Amino acid sequence: MRPVQIKPGIYWVGVNDRFTQLFEGLWPIGEEGVSYNAYLLTDEKNVLIDLAKSIKVDEFIGQIEQIIPVSKLDYIVINHMEPDHTGILTILKKLAPGATILIGEKGMKMLKSFYQIEENVKTVKDLEELHIGEKILRFYYTPFVHWPETMMTYEVTQKVLFSCDGFGGYGALRGTLFDDECKDKDFYIKEMLRYYANIVATFSTPVLKAIEKLSSVPVQVIAPSHGLIWRENPKMVVDFYRTWAQYASSKAEKAVTLLYGSMYGNTERMMSSLLNGLSKTGIPVDVFNVTQTHVSYILASLWKNRGVIIGAPTYEGSLFPPMADVLHMANVKHIKFKTAAVFGSYGWSGGASKKIIEMVEPLKWQIVDTVDINGAPTNEDLQKIEELGYRFAKEIIEQP
Question: The pTM is what?
Answer without folding.
Answer: 0.95
